[in-house]
Design goal:
Rossmann fold, binds calcium ion, alpha/beta, 25% strand
Length: 215
């Protein structure tokens, strides 16, 4: 079943859109904040429709955070006229499309349909016997899924995605623990040592004073 994560803090609009999408035969997972969106982005979601102005931050930043963590599912922004929304910044963050409020419901529907059609499954990243399966948010070693936490998954996905060093600050920027809490430098070190035990210490190189690198 087609599943949409709908992130909108205006309860009336959210209900209206939920009804619209439901009539279209789609399953809707509603969220009213960035925190809820982070929590509710499950494997079944195929596309994300997200307001830009949310009570705990802006949707564009969350989209950038998701993209940095390897998230590839399509994102459509809902922007309000007069709201600070820079189209370049929006699309540069990895967003696929946007509509400006007030919009016609039919127009939104057709844009979402386009995104759903274009949302081809991402090519898995494969490096030295490890595969990142983004749809299932899993890392496989020689075909076997590793028992990683969500945070550990995000770290591996980021490291494997880049040939060079990933700075600590970059990791901290996009890493939030499962409860939506920002993690600090010490917590990152703890995650790293647990992760090394799971994937093998030699695969994660520490570049002193800079960050980490997959090897
Ligand atoms: Ca809003």
């Amino acid at each position: 079943m087609t599943t949409i994560l709908l992130v909108e803090d205006d309860a009336v609009l959210r209900e209206g859109l939920k009804e619209l999408f439901t009539r279209e035969g789609w399953h809707v997972i509603p969220a009213g904040s960035l925190r809820e969106a982070r929590e509710k982005l499950s494997a079944e979601v195929q596309a994300i429709v997200m307001d830009v102005g949310l009570p705990d931050g802006d949707g564009v930043s969350l989209c950038r955070e998701w993209r940095a963590a390897g998230e590839t599912r399509p994102v459509l922004f809902l922007t309000a006229r007069g709201e600070e929304f820079d189209v370049v910044r929006g699309l540069d963050s990895g967003g696929n499309d946007y509509v400006t409020k007030p919009f016609r419901m039919q127009e939104l529907l057709s844009r979402v349909r386009v995104l759903l059609r274009s949302g081809q499954p991402a090519q898995p990243v494969v490096r030295s016997g490890f595969t990142v399966n983004r749809e299932r948010m899993q890392v496989l070693k020689d075909g076997e899924p590793l028992p990683l936490t969500l945070t550990e998954y995000k770290i591996v996905a980021m490291l494997m995605d880049r040939p060079g060093v990933v700075p600590r600050e970059r990791l901290l920027e996009v890493l939030w623990d499962e409860g939506g809490k920002f993690i600090d430098d010490n917590t990152l070190s703890v995650h790293m040592s647990r992760l090394r035990e799971k994937v093998g210490a030699d695969h994660i190189k520490t570049v002193r004073g800079v960050g980490y690198q997959w090897s």
